[in-house]
Amino acid sequence: MKTSFSALFLIAHLLGTLGCSTMKTSSNPALPHDTLYDASVFDASTATALSIEQLAQQLKDTDVVVVGEYHGHQGAHLLQSRLQVALHSQRPEQVLTMEQFNLDHQADVDRYLRGGTGETEMIEDTDAWPNYRASYRPLVEFARQHSIPVVAANAPADVVRCVGRRGADYLQTLSSEARMQLPETPFADTEGYREKFLEAIGHSHGESSGEMSARMQNTYRAQLLRDNTMAMQIRQAREQHPGHQVLHVTGTFHSEDRLGTVGLLEAMAPDVSVAVISPVFRAENGTEPDMKEHGRKGDYLYLIHPLPPEFRDSEREKKAMRARFNRSADTECD
Predict the structure, then answer these.
(1) All residues at 6 or more sequence positions from 314 whose CB lies less than 8 Å from its CB, including other chains
(2) For the chain, is the Cβ count within 10 Å smaller at the N or the C terminus?
(3) How many other C-beta atoms are found inside a 10 Å radius of the C-beta of residue 17?
């Protein structure tokens, strides 16, 4: 398989920002919102527009609400924050679970919520994502102010990277304590997810999915480790906080089409009700996408503007990608 440089970058980041695709547009007039902070919400089954308050009302009795995002998109993060508040007003018993914190930093998150550290200390202690202040601060601060538990839901970053390099057997090198933090079946899969993964990274349509290279297999297992860990953490949050509604924020690849984390959670806890809210990009000319085409992505859809391209100069893009590869290559897996 020949993989492009851009595809390799996506692999290195394990698909955290995947999902940008070209969409056909309908003849409907442009939606009224016109900034990157705006999002228009729709019921996917009826294509009915909803306010955030109406959405929260419909979700009041749902056990787990999963909001997929394109990491760093202002429209996604503002919607998440507004929905958190609206859901809390309907049902104050809430837990926030986040892909953006790794479970080995749960104590650091808890220490901040208790007032034991300042924000910069927490960011340093948890190795928080670079866009924490711009994107996730509102969620965490609302949780802190209202004594809402915040669950670090993702697998430890170093473990994910090393599984991506060395494969499933790397978990056997972990201490018993570290291994016990991870799911009992860390590489469980959901039907159709593998094919979606291969398509997302540009796998040739002429090759069988069974012909994944060893490197690609390891990358996929690392992706599954993330999904299984998040599903486990959501399930445990429900068990530790009975009657609470869980709001989970994650990259849309982990949740749309009810695959990844969502599919695994539903297999682990079939009695738990789950609603999926997925982003869809509007066309650059502002027209509304065909909802029927994207309805399977989630129970609800929110429309947002596409972000501007990172690069137009291919050489500068390659240089930036190499620099990002080099930064992630420091992890020792021996």
Answers:
(1) none
(2) C
(3) 18
Cα of 257 vs its chain's centroid, Å: 13
Is residue 279 situated within a structural domain? yes
Tens of pLDDT, residue by residue over 273-301, are 999 999 999 877 656 666 666 668 999 99
Residue owning tokens 């500068």: 316
Please tell me the total number of residues recorded for the chain in this structure: 334
Nearest to 294 by CA among 306, 309, 282: 282
| 44 occurs within a structural domain | yes
Indicate left, alpha or beta for 286 from its phi (over 0: left) and psi (-120 to 50: alpha): left
Nearest to 73 by CA among 152, 131, 24, 126: 131
Distance between CA atoms of 281 and 119, rounded to whole angstroms?
33
For 164-221, the pLDDT digits (tens) are 999 999 999 999 999 999 999 999 999 999 999 999 887 544 445 455 788 899 999 9
Assigned domain for 71 exists: yes
Tally of domains within the chain: 1
User: Which three-class secondary structure string do you get for the chain?
Assistant: CCCCHHHHHHHHCCCCCCCCCCCCECCCCCCCCCCCCCCEEEECCCCEEECHHHHHHHCCCCCEEEEEECCCCHHHHHHHHHHHHHHHHHCCCEEEEEEEEEHHHHHHHHHHHCCCCCHHHHHHHHCCCCCHHHHHHHHHHHHHHCCCCEEEEECCHHHHHHHHHHCHHHHHHCCHHHHHCCCCCCCCCCCCHHHHHHHHCCCCCCCCHHHCCHHHHHHHHHHHHHHHHHHHHHHHHHHHCCCCEEEEEEEHHHCHHHCHHHHHHHHHCCCCCEEEEEEEECCCCCCCECHHHHHHHCCEEEEECCCCCCCCCHHHHHHHHHHHHHHHCCCCCC
Rounded to two decimals, the pTM is 0.88
- CATH number of the domain within which 132 lies: 3.40.50.11550
In a domain, 333, yes or no: no
